[in-house]
Specification:
The structure is a single chain. The protein is α/β, with parallel strands linked by helices. It has a single domain, classed as Rossmann fold (3-Layer(aba) Sandwich), CATH 3.40.50. It has six helices and six strands, in the order βαββαβαβααβα. The chain has a six-stranded mixed sheet with strand order 2-3-1-4-5-6, with helices on both faces. Strand 2 and strand 3 form a beta hairpin. It is globular, with a radius of gyration of 15 Å. It binds guanosine-3'-monophosphate-5'-diphosphate (G3D) and magnesium ion.
């Protein structure tokens, strides 16, 4: 067995409003595909994937998806319990989803006593050339800086920056635990 195989095993959450692309991002990262061949069942679903955060250094991520429970004000505590890091996703084409990320962040920080690394993701980057800039990027960067989040823009459709988002989160988790 490779010594890296089981050295790190992190629980990672993917949270944010409905239809921003959370499940699609996981699907892109884990299966490298976009269209969903199956719908996730209701409740917290998780998938595992090894991430190479440095050449020949890997960590196992267990990625928890909220699977359609976005409408509940507070998610089950067991969903958050033991999380090492989170991806907080909004849709670059719908400003209200960006505004809602503040509530998602507060809710999570209310439940988790320890601050965990969070990557803020503006997803659906591929639609920007068509639709134009809907969410003020200056504002997202300021918000990220103030809340100590790392901001990145992705497309689950093209795959742009998806791996980078997961790798960056893994690096931040490693820094946080050392
Ligand atoms: P959720 O898990 O956050 O609820 P989903 O979001 O992953 O189910 O995605 C919601 C819709 O957005 C899906 O469309 C999906 O195909 C689309 N989507 C997700 N990510 C991207 C992206 O990066 N670019 C574009 N263009 N679309 C994206 P449908 O039509 O299946 O509801
Ligand atoms: Mg989903």
């Amino acid at each position: 067995m490779n010594e890296n195989d089981s050295k790190y095993n992190f629980k990672v959450l993917i949270i944010g409003p409905g239809a921003v692309g959370k499940t699609s991002l996981i699907n892109r990262f884990v299966h490298n595909q976009f269209s969903l061949k199956y719908k996730f069942t209701i409740g917290a679903d998780f998938l595992m994937k090894n991430v190479e955060y440095k050449p020949s250094k890997t960590a196992k991520l267990t990625i928890w998806d909220i699977g359609g429970q976005e409408r509940f004000r507070f998610l089950n505590r067991s969903f958050y319990k033991g999380a090492n890091g989170a991806l907080l996703v909004f849709d670059l084409t719908r400003e209200n989803t960006y505004i809602e990320t503040k509530r998602w962040l507060n809710d999570m920080r209310t439940i988790l006593k320890d601050k965990i690394p969070v990557v803020l993701i503006g997803n659906k980057l591929d639609l920007i050339p068509e639709i134009g800039e809907v969410v003020d990027r200056k504002d997202t960067r300021q918000f990220a800086k103030k809340e100590n989040l790392w901001y990145i823009e992705t497309s689950a459709k093209t795959g742009d920056n998806v791996e980078e988002a997961f790798v960056e989160l893994t690096l931040r988790i490693l820094k946080n635990i050392s």
